[in-house]
Design a protein that fits this description.
With 365 residues, the chain is an alpha/beta fold. The chain has helices at residues 26-33, 37-45, 52-65, 71-78, 94-109, 123-135, 152-159, 182-195, 212-227, 244-255, 269-281, 315-330; strands at residues 83-88, 113-118, 140-144, 163-166, 177-178, 201-206, 237-240, 263-266, 291-295, 309-313, 343-346. Helix 5 links the parallel strand 1 (83-88) and strand 2.
Length: 365
């Protein structure tokens, strides 16, 4: 049968509608939004330069037309991917989770995308993840701590990828790291306990393997105690990871010694929560029999029967400033952020002076 003079119908799409002859592009979006193509481009690439009202109109046109910007073409044209890679040791910690949210909010407001990976405190794994990010063309990297794979500096120098280290601060490396002075924050916490009269201390610490932040916090405790001629006995030092169950186990371990500690400093919030729960199982009164303090301020710490004293790090501030630092570097803008971030001792019911029976004035160390 002849088909001459007849018109063929294009096969329907998944919605049952005829397929369009071509996909919508930048020009069609500009026409629909009644703006120039340059304005559409600015709304996508540098949204902070476009008024909220105009951005909304452009995005309505984008949604209506179903347009998805071609990231590959954009990257070729600008030699930028507008993506930032971040590698965190874990996302189970409150600090890292809150910082991630803040980073994403800052980047999104400027048209950047966050790529995220976890290293599980393994320097080789972190290095491999960084290599994958660089292969995918990230514009910059957010890392944690200053202890990285020995080949990282060489890799970054070859690719000219800017980085910022987070959750750590040292005057010696000012300008390359954003975070708290980890030694000082636990030095101050230990001084607080000493001033209340404690002289028998136990430490339930997080592992310092590939964790320079935990190592610095441990050094702060030891330095504060050394100023008063106090030493932590070997039986009063226990080291683990970060779980509540491990906090319970390690707390019972250090409390089953003589002399019994009157203050227990925990290296992270989960260890502190575990220590408190185990104190209940042991029939101990907190803080009358033992003061328990921690690091980081997760929500549950303020909702236990005895709320926990802890060191609070402004992790959202760390995340926001890390994102702002990298974007300023990439956009060739002035960098105007504080590199040392705020911390505070949040004093709650779990800390107090030792009872007389547990801390006799004649106690010899």
């Amino acid at each position: 049968m002849s088909t001459q003079g007849s018109s063929e119908k294009k096969p329907p799409n998944h919605a049952g509608q005829p397929r369009q002859s071509s996909l919508a592009g930048l020009r069609e979006v500009a026409v629909a939004a009644h703006v120039s193509t340059a304005t559409v481009s600015r709304a996508i690439n540098t949204p902070h330069l476009v008024s909220p009202k105009l951005r909304e109109r452009i995005h309505q046109a984008i949604d209506q037309l179903g347009w998805v910007p071609d990231g590959t073409a954009r990257a070729l044209a600008t030699k930028r991917s507008y993506t930032i890679g971040a590698v965190f040791p874990t996302l189970t910690h409150g600090d890292f989770a809150r910082a991630t949210t803040a980073i994403q909010q800052e980047l999104q407001a400027r048209g950047y995308t966050l790529l995220l990976a976890c290293s599980d405190y393994d320097l080789e794994q972190e290095f491999q993840q960084i290599k994958k990010f660089i292969e995918r063309g990230v514009d910059g990297l957010i890392l944690v701590g200053e202890n990285h794979h020995p080949d990282l500096d060489k890799l970054l120098a070859r690719r000219s990828v800017p980085i910022i280290n987070t959750f750590v601060y040292s005057p010696q490396t000012h300008g390359t790291c954003i975070g708290p002075d980890n030694r000082k924050l636990f030095f101050d916490m230990t001084r607080y306990l000493i001033e209340m009269g404690h002289v028998v201390f136990a430490i339930v610490a997080q592992s310092v393997q590939n964790n320079d932040r935990a190592e610095a916090r441990l050094q702060g405790i030891q330095d504060a105690l050394a100023e008063e001629g106090i030493a932590v006995r070997p039986q009063h030092f226990a080291i683990g990871q970060w779980s509540i169950s491990e906090g319970r186990h390690l707390f019972r371990q250090v409390m089953a010694t003589q002399p019994r500690p009157t203050a227990v400093i925990c290296g992270n919030p989960y260890l502190a929560v575990g220590a408190y729960l185990e104190s209940i199982s042991m029939g101990l009164e907190v803080p009358q029999d033992v003061s328990i303090v921690g690091y980081d301020d997760i929500e549950v710490m303020n909702h236990l029967p005895v709320s926990l004293t802890t060191v609070r790090v402004q992790s959202e501030q760390v995340g926001r400033n890390a994102a702002r630092y990298l974007m300023a570097r990439l956009e060739d803008e002035a960098i105007d952020i504080p590199f040392q971030c705020d911390t505070e001792i949040v004093i709650r019911a779990s800390s107090g002076p030792p009872s007389r029976k547990n801390n006799p004035a004649s106690l010899s160390l």
